[in-house]
What we know:
The protein is an alpha/beta fold. The chain has one domain: Rossmann fold, CATH 3.40.50.300. Helix content is about 55%, strand content about 15%. A 5-stranded parallel sheet has the order 2-3-1-4-5, with helices on both faces. The longest helix has 25 residues. The chain is globular, with a radius of gyration of 16 Å. The two termini are about 15 Å apart.
Amino acid sequence: MARGRFITFEGGEGTGKSTQVGRLVDRLKAAGIDVVRTREPGGSPGGEAIRALVVSGTSDRWSARTELLLMFAARSDHLERTIRPALAAGQWVVCDRFADSSRAYQGAAGGAAADFVEALDRHVVGEDQPDLTLVFDLPADIGLARALSRAGGETRFESKGLAFHDALRAGFRAIAEGHPDRCRLIDAAGPIEAVEARVWVAVEALLP
């Protein structure tokens, strides 16, 4: 059986990627593709338990290094329990955030050493890298305003301030520029339907 495809959505707060994850999953299912929708941190019982630790509380609850280790612990469980079995069964996996979020949030914006992030990625993710990563790009002030207007209890990252989110956007843009083989930068501005069309153009190349 052919291995499934692995698509990840990345970007700062309020860029609309979660909405587009749902739209892409629906569109792939309509095309007859067996799809697993998942998210990070989370995506498995262990991953969701760790999510509760990292997305709530004060902005300084964890150092960037501790936060990074928690994220990769959640990612390890997610890969073992959800992603790898699905891909091995020939299913497509569409994930709302993955390792690039660690590179951007804990690395570029948080200050954790890039070589430490990459060492963890080699050991935890290994060869299970995404086939395609869609990086949603939007000015940080616009995204943050969107995120705060609809935030529930998970506001720890939103509360880190605009300077953090400006650095976050720059980090994601650098990731997209540094990995053109798998990353596509998606303009997240404009109507939902327009953004969906941009996503579909990027995904079409993977269709059988």
